[in-house]
Inverse folding.
């Protein structure tokens, strides 16, 4: 089983600069996360595509990610894209529009809190994405917080800080209006 | 989505007794593990069935677990059994023999290193079991170390300290004989 | 043994706001740190004085800290002030100028990396400050990174990100000029 | 500042053997602990003397430790001995009897819970021992749980699982008899 992981930056990869006293996207922490997991018989190709806050991503960045996905398709049994949550949906929709006939699962994940924090959700989400890579049927997904959400129609729920399908958001909104 | 988690003890739940200076099965750490995960919209019923090293389990213990599985079936969308790894296969086969027509996934998991240790695999395995509970088709499985293994025929690989299917073990063994 | 701990904010207490995606001084993490330590027979009075990045402290803030130190003196065997590192020296000198005849140790500490980060120096520094509170002779000190540094003359070494005495800084600087 | 650390095993150094499912004294975790601390300008000589549960130490072991202490004296500004808590007092008294005129602090420390456990006191105690090595006057001490206890007369309090002076134990015992 061969999985390609493309890292692009995002909250999950923010690290603390002690001189500046601030959080930055400078490098990926993926290898540290992978070292803490037990993954027998799994071959991982890690491609560090960029290191960007996803709010700063422009069209050219999404085109680059798309190119890397296409390059990885013939040599991978699954692809995971580690991405900032703010525009994860946009990149997911972009891949969904452009790669119609994927025969493998393509999974976008990230975190609400950087991995370097003690109570980050990064380890959970990477664990889930790697598990989904093994068991999900072909398609484009967001994986986070115990959920496998198929594109199109996945959005960030900025109130409860997780991802949901468009349907779920509408249902919650309808219930709140009724109440 | 309602998941029932049955805890039975095992390595994952071993805690350190500072007076005796030794590891014991006295209580479950499941709630601590669950608190560290983000599980929106998931309803978890936790039933602490017993707190035993699985090497000390007798037939009556397995019958009790089977009774608890049957009791949980009508009220659960998935069942997770947290179990010692030494006889996890035996309990899995027992459930497989006795519950033929399950309409939900029944997942056995555990850990090679107690949760209380810094570099335990417990969090990874519980994360994976909870994800499998969401996405697996009906059946009996062992979930550990990035793998979803369907019963019958799952065994503990005592050399590499993980679980494998009977087929995989035979393949490894054949390769070693050839080499 | 009664120790008063005054928290004022600083890097050590920065917490991550998932909605804003940024670090903030909003509350103190001191109680979480203390819970992780074994401190038999120690009575701790914790006074949360303010929650500020020390670069934003004004004279009125330092006067307030001084007032709290004076209020704590008669009821404490030692005083610890948890403070941002950027102006820790300034507050230390201010206390040194104004409290000449302290009969107990008054210790300033903080951290270069917020406690919420996995590899923070916060736990080390608080552990050391609590130990110094037990064993140091009366005086005003900075405690951090295995060192007990008496005021006056303690400064932040912005190159190696630790605190040093004025003498040490001059020695390092002279050596570098020679080399 | 040069500190010699002699490791001898004990609870602090117990590691988990996944094949046997049990705790063992096989190697020291000291270097992992030291890597997590910030210790500028400190030169540490680490001598791994033995790896024993201190209940299994015999006279010859204590003689060996004594020889290593004597060998370290001329090249060290302080000596730390990492030791099992069960017979730490015995080794401390032995050093006190045999090394009367030490001109440096000699500090015994250990832990009630192995370092490999998440909520171990090992990091606290090593942090404190390293700080005491910097600030304590010449003598033989036990350092643990925020306390610097001078030999002779230090004993393990098996009820509250910490170290105390003989006097403190008698005081507690007298109070309990009165009550």
């Amino acid at each position: 089983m061969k999985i390609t992981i493309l890292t692009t930056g995002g909250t999950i990869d923010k690290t603390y600069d002690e001189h500046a006293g601030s959080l930055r996207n400078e490098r990926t922490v993926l290898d540290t996360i992978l070292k803490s997991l037990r993954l027998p018989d799994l071959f991982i190709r890690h491609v560090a595509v960029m290191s960007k806050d996803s709010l700063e991503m422009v069209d050219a960045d999404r085109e680059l990610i798309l190119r890397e996905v296409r390059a990885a398709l013939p040599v991978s049994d699954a692809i995971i894209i580690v991405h900032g949550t703010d525009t994860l949906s946009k990149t997911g929709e972009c891949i969904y529009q452009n790669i119609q006939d994927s025969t493998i699962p393509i999974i976008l994940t990230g975190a609400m809190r950087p991995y370097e924090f003690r109570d980050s959700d990064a380890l959970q989400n990477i664990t889930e994405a790697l598990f989904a890579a093994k068991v999900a049927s072909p398609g484009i997904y967001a994986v986070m917080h115990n959920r496998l959400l198929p594109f199109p129609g996945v959005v960030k729920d900025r109130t409860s800080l997780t991802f949901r399908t468009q349907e779920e958001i509408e249902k919650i909104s309808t219930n709140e209006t009724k109440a």
About this structure: Chain D has a mean pLDDT of 96. Residues 2-178 of chain D form a domain with the Rossmann fold fold (CATH 3.40.50.1170). The helical segments of chain D are 30-35, 59-72, 88-98, 122-135, 166-178. Chain D touches chain C at residues 36-40, 42, 112, 119, 121, 123-124, 127-128, 130-132, 134-136, 145-148, 160, 162 (CB under 8 Å).
